[in-house]
Amino acid sequence: MDQQTSRVDVGIVGGGPAGLMTALLLKRRGISAAVVERRSQEAIRTTQRAGILEAPTVDMLVDAEIGSRVLTEGHEHEGTVLSFDGVQHRIDFQELVGRSVWLYPQNEVFRDLATAWQAEGGEIHWEADDVAVEGLESEAPVITFTDAAGEPGRIEAQLIVGADGSRSMCRRLIPDEVRTDYFTSYPFAWFGILCEAPPTAPELIYANSEVGFALISQRNEDITRMYFQCDPDTDPESWSEEAIFDHIQQVLGGEEVVQLKRGRIIEKTVLPFRSYVCDPLTHGRLVLAGDAGHTVPPTGAKGLNLAFSDVRALVPRIVEFLEGLTGGEGLTAGADDVGSGPGAPADLTAPLRRYSATSLDRVWKAQNFSWWATNLLHRAPDEDEFAHHRRRGEFRAITGSVHGQAYFADSYTGWAGDRHD
Ligand code: PHB
């Protein structure tokens, strides 16, 4: 059978938000891209992920002119509630740091990006099998795959972006000798539910109690997303609807504190927690973006925001890299062009290494916040009395002082002054 071959500037493995946003922003700069994705559109669109967007993430969606549903259907949140042992404390983001976040589920972000890319005639192969990348150390990297109809496909590019999620195949193409994997795990998971209930409160509630953590998030007027801390081995079917709501109500405090809105549960899932960083995020003609390069636990709602800040940092460096290939104006041999002595050709991949350093700088801040907020708000199964009281002290130090609150607000809303643009 004939193999279909495309020739583009950038081949992208992964059609989630990181891959599609990269493809769209490259196109805005006149750079061609093609995307290969293993899953179906439907599978990505129906997977529940966190729904909190930082302001620069919203700006990217609006600036990329892919429709402004985020502005009409998203909800601005000027604060959030932290609750400990049934006592609520509101963190007022606007008052503390002058910024908000937006509740706009990642499924909707994906839908907007996929619709825009396809409406603009962007090349994308959904449900691709046997995806492989070759030639990363050559000048002609290639993505090969079998398309949904069983036909072989081939994308020849100058550069490959690995945006293939937390179980990334691309990441493993960075040789072990040059790649460091930083990893930590947690002794708990989240039990996530989607239920037919209106919002319980105007803002999200992150709650902690003697029996652990719960989060009351939102989706729309009729559907609510909630989570509670559980053992990673929990069978979702072992919890009845009533037991789930009684437990979450207990974490929130009594009904006199807040009355949980209940409704028919339409989805139950257990989400394991992990923190992971790959360093570096580039090798030869490969760069990683989003979850492929780093994963955070969901407590800080940073996953999608980190993916978008990667893309923001990456796109100008790809432009620079491609200009360097054609001897364009954009490339000058900088101080980090290791190995390019006087008269030697500039190291063409230097912009990609600069991207890696810039991204990892932000990633580690987000790793710290996500790890810290996770440990602050969850009760580890082996937590002793000293650790428990220490953690309560830490919680009071955050909620009881404007400086503590500002630390939380600044981190949660995404560190102003740390933008890559
Ligand atoms: C969600 O809406 O699913 C969500 C919100 C905030 C988080 C995590 C998940 O920190």
Automatic annotation (TrEMBL):
Keywords: FAD, Flavoprotein. SUPFAM superfamilies: FAD-linked reductases, C-terminal domain, FAD/NAD(P)-binding domain. Residues 7-331 form the FAD-binding domain. InterPro entries: FAD-bd, FAD/NAD-bd_sf, RIFMO-like. NCBIfam families: PRK08243.1. PANTHER family: P-HYDROXYBENZOATE HYDROXYLASE, TRK SYSTEM POTASSIUM UPTAKE PROTEIN. This is 4-hydroxybenzoate 3-monooxygenase.
